[in-house]
Specification:
The protein has 69 residues and is an alpha+beta fold. The chain contains two helices and six strands, in the order αββββββα. The protein is elongated, with a radius of gyration of 15 Å.
């Protein structure tokens, strides 16, 4: 699996280390962003947050779109 962003930059030799949880494209260690997210569980009529945050991988493009103001 090759990093999509590296392919767009004409660098086809970069292996992907993960898949973006937003768009599903492969991403390398230079373009990947690992973010912490709180896991929400349904408890009866309400919800509860886990004490330990989970992690998710997003590509540089999706991370920029999510954090843009």
């Amino acid at each position: 699996m090759r990093c999509y962003d590296c392919l767009q930059e004409a660098r086809s030799d970069t292996a992907g280390i993960g898949v973006c949880s937003r768009c599903g494209l492969a991403t390398c260690e230079n373009h990947a962003r690992v973010r912490q997210v709180h896991v929400t569980r349904q408890i009866g009529m309400g919800s509860s947050h886990g004490r330990v945050p989970a992690r998710r991988v997003v590509c540089h493009t999706c991370d920029t779109a999510e954090t843009a103001q």
